[in-house]
Every structure is written in structure tokens, then in C-alpha cells.
Protein: Putative carbohydrate esterase
Organism: Corchorus capsularis
Amino acid sequence: MSGRGGVKHQHWDGVVPLECQPHPSILRLSANLDWEQANEPLHFDIDTSK
């Protein structure tokens, strides 16, 4: 696979390809059942009881 961005020699180069960046049209359903813009990590508030 070729392209920019990735891990080389066990070190992340910090480059996020355009197709992997957040986009305002991609939404996620939060734990409060609100739609919001999706950002990494997508699952950070799924299990709020832990």
C-alpha cells in the first residue's frame, strides 16, 4: 500500500491523509442520544458507567 501518513520504524509520522480527516457530514450518536460531528475516538463515551 502506498501513500502518505503512517507508522515507520515504530514511530508515527503525524501525517493524517485527507480521506481520514473528520468531515462535518459524518455524524455519530453520543451516549446522550445527540447527533454530533464524528471525531476520533468515536467510542469515547459509550460506556459511561466505568
About this structure: The CA atoms of residues 2 and 18 lie 14 Å apart. The mean pLDDT is 81. DSSP finds no helices and four strands in the chain. Residues 25-50 form one domain.
